[in-house]
## 1
Amino acid sequence: MPFNTITVGGAVTPTVIETYFSHYLHRKPLRHKPTAHISYHEGLRLIRRFLAFASVHTVEELQAFTQQWVPNPRWVKTEEVIIPQEHMEESARLLQSQLGPEGLHKVGGKQWWQWRRNNSPLKAEWVEMRSDFEARKRSGKQGNRVMLYVHGGAYYFGSVDEHRYQLQRHARKLKARVLARQVSKLGTRFRD
């Protein structure tokens, strides 16, 4: 079976409907549980069903599905950036200094987590509400609220596009700019 929006929708829709009715029919036993809120209950069941559906597909199919382009709403401003190599080197130096020899030993050394192919740029995307961006530009100030967003997926599936709704919600609620690393588009599992 193909792995696309239609097949995923077909796989999860019965779960969403069943959870909706089940939630309201069995409200009292849920009262003191995290699933007391319908959005949490639906989200949890939806993710479980998606993972069950995804488990019968290849990693490459999962990557292709989760790396689809998603349009930005007009009220969200995005800007793609490339992190300069000297900033990555300085960040690595600061992390090594902060961890110290014992901390570096605990995380597996000082090289494995810095690995990147030669000439492989580290791309990221700034996400912020357009109204906040325009207010920041009018004031002439840089802005003092920034959030670094590190999404799940072990960097072998998922993308900034897939997480943009979450990113824009954080940006809106925090009145902040959110920076998220972009994952390489398709290819092998260990492309970066």
## 2
Amino acid sequence: MDEANKSRDFQVLVVGAGSVGCIIAQRCKMLGIKCTLFERENYLNERNRDWNFGIYHAKPQLDECVGEDISKRITSNLVDPIRGLDDKSVFPMIHGQTGEMLKEIPTPNAMRLSRSKFRVLIADGLHIQYSKRLRNVECPHDSETVTVLFEDNTSATGNLLVGADGANSRVREFLLGKEKAALQPLALFGCGAVETLSADISRRIREINNLYIAAYHPEGANGFMARKHLPSLTLCRTANNRHGVVHNVPDPDKPETWQWMFSLTWPDKDSPTPTGADEIREKWLLHAKKLAEPFRSAYLEIAPSATIWCDRLAEWRTEPWDNRNGRVTLAGDAAHPMTYRKSFQQAMFSYEG
């Protein structure tokens, strides 16, 4: 078989149609490589937990992978499309106990994107099969192919399998075994919520920064706030640090409609994970009360009504895997799962050199 025919017959299988899986598939599409994605959800964005994320220095690489058409439409997924991009944008770091400004890190043209809307955009034109839960992988030594088997008794065969199936990757488990592939729990709990705030508190937060804020407390807590769509806030805290991000801004003239993404983390090695809503809320209040204003008011205001999720944070320290003669590999959180705090810090440090 000549090289042209060989290239046309090459088939990539991607398990996981999240952001990473879809970006890989878009690049394959640009290169004329056949690619099929297999997604465990029954439809796109079936799970209702949403969040936003930042692109700080990797925009040129993203553009290269998704092509000009999608690249032009990315700004429609900004949490605050009215604000747009700002070449003088900074990321403020606040003292979580005193409210003092510690540092403003330059983040020129930083983008905060809605994950759910971004997935819709980058899934455009891709071949995605839904309701596909991976059961096993077959990779015979005497073959150049790899086969994936699903719980619905269907299967697919290709030349390259990419596991983009998240932190609890089944493909990673196939490559390394259950014990070696398992996530390693950390001495940290993380809580999150998406909620609106009163007009006064929304304005006070946005006066500090109109996109995101991080607060670091001497006791170890971390808070982060970010806007979720137009305005949205994200607050994160680890024992004594918090941050906030705007998540959604339905009406720029009505701060009470701005949706914020909250995140709160704190250190705890031995306690069981809070499960019930009352237990989670109790932990939230305990740590939020230590924050400086206006973070304290923001976290306390949403506590009675917000749906708050809580998990023990975990990571997997990447180690080499046998790629079965180049037929199986990992990408994204399947290859290097880490806490959102660590990934955010790495993105920030890239600006600091």
## 3
Amino acid sequence: MGLTTYQPTAQTHLRRYRAILASTLIFLSVALFALLPLHPRTRTATSSFVHPFRPPSTNNAAPVHPPWLIAVSVSARNLQRRTLIRYTWMDWYARAGHFEGIFFLARPDPAWADVIQKENATYGDILVLDGIEEDSQWTATHTKPLELLKVVAQGGWKGRKYDFVSKVDEDSWIEAKGFYEDFLRPRLEDEQGTPLDPPNMTMIGCLINCDGVDKAPAGGFETFSWDMVDLLPRLHEEFPNEGEAEDCLMGKLLEDARIPFEFVDMIPDRGVDVNEVGHAFWGEEKGELEDFPEALVIHNAKTDEMWMRVVGLYDENGWTRDHAEG
């Protein structure tokens, strides 16, 4: 019996070619990230830092900036998630010029300080909250969000003011283009595109049930008009509410101070949670992740596998139905 000679098929060659190409791209990306801070132009930019964690100087920045700031809460260690966010929704939807996307973290462990500084020298999109340490889940869910609002209100991000500021968890996918068109643009300009007066006392998010609080947004994605960004940290000094979770705290502060505000609810189908097997839900609404084509926020995509599954449902224009044949 003669030996059978293996003859690779065209499909096999194509798979090998794709694997080689993917490996090459990954290698080049890592090399670029490692070498870019050493480039003379990059060294010049970093030499102007007032603080080692602050973003590069913006002396040459355009005088007009987007009306919306999206700040993603991250830990220093989760470099991979920051990379995934940068190259998916934060890149796709920022192209229209409606928002500026950044990451914020508490003061990192000294072992990570150099990594964060070099990463920021490369991307210039990380805000470090020096006033708090990255030491616990309590910091992440209680102190950190209000510290972000306080620092931003005081001009801590490039000295800028925005019409709206959103705080986002790192496990939340944001279809920012659709959110801007459906929730923010109508509050910023009329149908002819004429600017409206700045929005006042407006909070947008997914309504969550809280004991003793009528209106509060889930912490995975919450958006505030600029006057709220300035007001909420000051209210927290007056009404500390030390035991209140972030999800309920923002609404409770305003209700404790008896300050009226507008709450815009994204429920039932514009914001959902997803579990580890891809079932999406919010309250009584349940189904497969793919059953929520109107979703603008998908929260709890903790693993990279689940994150990429969500990515596959969207492109730079928003939701895509191509997943049906995937």
## 4
Amino acid sequence: MSPLQVPKLTVQLSLSSTNYSYSDPTPPTLHLSVTSDAERPITLLTFNHPFHPASGITHDCFPIWDLTTNSSVKTTSVRINRLPLSRARGSGDEQYFLTLPPSETTTVSTRFARGNKNLRPLSRAEAQQKREEAERSGTARRSIFACGVDGLEPGHRYSISVAKERLMSFWWIWGTKDDLLVDPESREWGLHNIQAERGPLEIGEIADVEFDIEH
């Protein structure tokens, strides 16, 4: 493949289990497997993107559809102000640079629920009750909107997909993450001076995944 050609990605969405009960404190794991057909490695910026599912799950990257009621599910959406992204080696932002080796499959994963492992997934009714209790006591409130299996209805069947609109634009470079990162002391830690590719990559159809919430 010529370096001028846009790589084609094959993406597969999956869950470690397609049946979940709220009696289980451990939610399923969401996996996204990505394969690039490029002859050279490419590195993508995945901040708040489906290819970084731990952040993407709260940034409208994985829509949920209630197959029982034939309706969309309102999901938790988090927006925060933060400093510009850094490419300093060892920084917290290093996790957002994903290298795809040529013709190899890379899998990224996250728990299919809220990121805080101390929060057991709750049904929608339980989440609403906890919210009301928190409002009465003045303590920190938990969103009643769904996040993975958290906040769904027992006895319902759902499907999860990858938001196509979030795959329409990429920041990416030819090369590996190690090529991109700089020493922590470097003044060139920003991304503004990087000659990166911008725009869509060619991505095939991504199949939805259906799952059940048990009574």
